[in-house]
Design a protein that fits this description.
The longest helix has 23 residues. The protein is built from three helices and no strands. It is mainly alpha-helical.
């Protein structure tokens, strides 16, 4: 799924940029940043899926050019798809 692949790219880029900005190469800090960015992405996906303490409304992401729904064909829960796809 291209969407989740892009999330991994965002995560890697964000972690690398932060590490470079702070001139840091500590493996424990890299692990911590990966965990934080993973947790944030899962929380956003849970919000879209309707499993958030904020709202139980279910949402979808739609490509406005093609009309394709991200969560259909097959039906998926976005937060489940992140398992094993991002660094955590």
């Amino acid at each position: 799924m291209m969407f989740n692949g892009q999330l991994l790219i965002f995560q890697c880029t964000s972690v690398e940029n932060c590490m470079a900005m702070h001139k840091c190469d500590d493996k424990e800090i890299r692990k911590m940043l990966n965990e934080v960015t993973y947790d944030m992405a899962v929380s956003i996906m849970e919000l879209i899926d309707g499993y958030s303490g904020y709202s139980s409304d279910k949402h979808d992401i739609i490509n406005i050019v093609t009309g394709e729904q991200l969560k259909e064909n097959p039906f998926i829960e976005l937060h489940d798809v992140l398992d094993g796809r991002m660094e955590n």
